[in-house]
Amino acid sequence: MSTSPSAVVTAQVDAFNVRDLDGFCATYAPDAVVSRVTPEPIVGRDALRAFYASRFEDTALHCVIDASVTFGDRWLVARELVTTSNGTGETIATFEVRDGLITRASMVKG
Predict the structure, then answer these.
(1) Is the pTM of this model over 0.85?
(2) Bridge pairing between strands 28-35 and 42-43
(3) Which of 2, 25, 79, 105 gives 20 to 30 Å between its CA and that of 99?
(4) Facing residues of 59 across strands?
(5) CB of 84 within 8 A of CB of 78?
(6) What does the alpha-carbon distance between residue 98 and residue 39 come to, in Å, rounded to a whole number?
(7) What pLDDT is attached to residue 6?
């Protein structure tokens, strides 16, 4: 598999869409930091697993990236349409990818 930001983020979204918690967490570095999803940053794979386990129970959960831009060999900014049982919302997501893993991500709800 390619380690480009686009390939890694695509693998992350693919795992998200089939609610594959192991596959989803595997796209993140062990010490990854995800901010703006919860009031405090989510730090590390264990914390990601704990947060997303209940979200992945939502059978309506689905994400579509309808636009993205890659900056250099590390950064990808994407416009995501995320659907849950509560409806669909827009998210602007920024991902930093190093050595084939997401090291930092930030989500801003539209």
Answers:
(1) yes
(2) antiparallel
(3) 79
(4) none
(5) no
(6) 25
(7) 96
